């Protein structure tokens, strides 16, 4: 199957190792992977801020770049949710564009959901020796139902132990522009999440969304925790965790 990898702008700018790890996982699952070089943003920041014109322009650009792929796979529940759930809303009054958007949206998956539900990856190629705890990102969980999929893949790694933290499904306080608009509330939410991570005793906290991981890692380090690894699930599954702090 021909799979288009939408890297996301955050991964591209902040932690490219996540994109490379996602690429390795898709190849391990037997996919032919294409990565359109001109890809940029899914349009979510504009959409969330009320700039629907900018969001529509970016959405049409993305559709044009990926519509010849059998599937679109995204290492982010947030961006995958934007494409799968919110793109049709953007074009609900434009029948011609809406049909193109719906066709692509239906073939768009968050990475772990795709690996479990479509590609059926039996054995992740990476190795991890230690204990991890998992943070459920809001968009992936609530818009796409991503919860069991990353845990199922982690369970297939023989030397990895998963311990559940308290309130794993509670928001970390990032929420895109929420962290900028309501920084005090965001910080308190992150502190609560960090306390649960610490109480779990895990060597690493793992999640499917880089935005959450940047929020959590930033707060952990400011609290004086320089030991807990903060990893995208793709990095763990592909064995790329050594590439990041």
Automatic annotation (TrEMBL):
Cysteine-rich domain sequence ranges: 3-84, 132-216
Gene Ontology molecular function: oxidoreductase activity
InterPro entries in the record: Cys_rich_dom
Gene Ontology cellular component annotations, sorted alphabetically: cytosol
Entry-linked Pfam families: CCG
This protein's name: Fe-S oxidoreductase
